[in-house]
Amino acid sequence: MALPLMAAPARTPFKGVHIYVANSGGDTISIIDPEANRVVGEIKVSGQPHGLAASPDGKRFYVSSEGQDVLDVVDRATSSMIRRIPLGKRPNNLAITPDGKRVYICIRNESWVDVVDTAALEKVKRIPVGLNPHNVYCTPDGKWMIATSMGDRKLTAINIRTEQPEFEIPLDGIPRPLAIEPGPDGSARRLFVQLSDLHGFVIVDFEARKATGRVLLPDAPADATPLIPHTFSHGIAVAPDRKTLWVTSLLSNCVSVYSLPDLKLMGAIPVGNGPDWMTFTPDGSRCYVSNAGAESVSAIDAATRHEIARIPVGRVPKRLIAAE
Questions:
Q1: CA 5, 7, 13 angle in degrees (round to 5)?
Q2: Across-strand partners of 6?
């Protein structure tokens, strides 16, 4: 007699994936389950967490503390602190090398990035990048760290192999977050750079090492005031499939979506007050946006471009990442 067919187990696209949100107004990282779109845990860290990155093997988190001038090293399995590594004054955003051996941290009140060795768990180097560095990014091919200098209005490309600054790209404004559009080989093709007092972003040709244009976001209400002074747009990301660019507006409290490579506006998605940062689930089906002025995170369905949940988190949520 033939046996009855068994139903295949339900697919869980977010199995093992969580969204981690740095609550910069406190001392916690909120953990969001994307299946349920709710907070399922919390990690205690040093005050005013700013940058947040997972090690490539998923075993650790590295969290910069703007309030206590340290890099927290957290064991992901137990959510317990391994080490607090002293840094320069006011560490901001950070990035980790593809091999997981080095963490680069922008030191906002200085003119360099601190480099931490993840085996020794010690700061081993500082690399000059210009005054008031704010954000740093690793290019998809793993060859460069790109650091933004707010004080000197430039980008500095650091050669990861030599750990030396190799060239600079001047800008006509104060750089804030940026997104990298990779070429077919993973090299950085274009950068999309947000600037203070600009409701939009600048386009930078990375190989030519110069800005080539700018794109303005849809007009905001005439009486709109940003949550953070001089910060009209502070959150930008290329979707995992590299077909769209997503950009936040603190004037309109929405996220605009542009097609790539032509940068045609596809629509805008209303979110909470003060959208500040964003991340995608690895499969690209969801985008999560931190609402710094609303103590919440918006979950957006990437296919329909609609907000599907607004999740309460901690005080002043900013940086957030997805990690498996």
A1: 150
A2: none
Q: Which residue has the higher pLDDT, 210 or 1?
A: 210
Range 219-324 classified under CATH 3.40.50.300 = no
Alpha-carbon span 191 to 275, nearest angstrom: 21
Contact 92, 64 (CB under 8 A): yes
DSSP-derived 3-state class of residue 318:
strand
Instruction: Kindly compute the dihedral angle of the four CA atoms of residues 266, 36, 274, 110, in this order, to the nearest 10 degrees.
Output: -110
Q: At 40, which helix (H) or strand (E)?
A: strand 38-44
DSSP β-bridge partners for residue 107: 91, 112
pLDDT band at residue 5, thresholds of 50, 70 and 90?
very low
Q: Could you give the CA distance from residue 250 to residue 45 in angstroms, rounded to a whole number?
A: 27
Residue spans per domain, the chain: 219-324
Element of type H or E holding 73: strand 70-75
Taking the complete model, does pTM exceed 0.90, yes or no? yes
**pLDDT tens digits along 63-113:** 999 999 999 999 999 999 999 999 999 999 999 999 999 999 999 999 999
Tokens at residue 76, please?
């992901």
Tokens representing residue 20 in the block: 């981690």
Question: Cβ distance 300 to 288 under 8 Å?
Answer: yes
* pLDDT the model gives residue 13: 73
Model confidence pLDDT, tens digit, residues 103-155: 999 999 999 999 999 999 999 999 999 999 999 999 999 999 999 999 999 99
- Neighbour order of strands in the sheet with 80-86: 49-54, 60-65, 70-75, 80-86
In the three-class reduction of DSSP (H, G, I as helix; E, B as strand; rest coil), residue 262 is classed as coil
- Reduced to 3 states (helix: H, G, I; strand: E, B; else coil), residue 130 is coil
- Reference 134, options 83, 225, 66; nearest CA is 66
Residue with the two structure tokens 């490579």: 261
